[in-house]
Write a structure and sequence with these properties.
single chain, globular, 84 residues, two-stranded parallel sheet
Length: 84
């Protein structure tokens, strides 16, 4: 979702077509603050993102530290689908 503002101004039918209400297995990946993503993933969803101010290191080290590796995201999705 490139823009929350643009998304929120779309008709409800469009928003429901993108995020169907019946689909509760949702993951948001944000390489910044997780603030605000909970409204899109819902109570059963998960947000993978930074919960601190950040860090100073090479990008790959920071991605590992904060859980932005593809394997971590796939594992979270598999776990979520296993519960669904």
């Amino acid at each position: 979702m490139p823009s929350w503002d643009i998304f929120e101004h779309q008709p409800q039918s469009y928003r429901d077509s993108v995020l169907p209400p019946k689909v509760t297995a949702r993951i948001a990946v944000e390489q910044a603050s997780t603030l605000g993503w909970d409204r899109y993933v819902g109570g059963a969803g998960q947000v993978i993102g930074m919960k601190t101010f950040g860090g100073s290191a090479p990008l790959k080290e920071l991605q590992k530290k904060f859980g932005f590796q593809p394997e971590r995201i796939v594992a979270a999705a598999r776990e979520m689908l296993g519960r669904a």
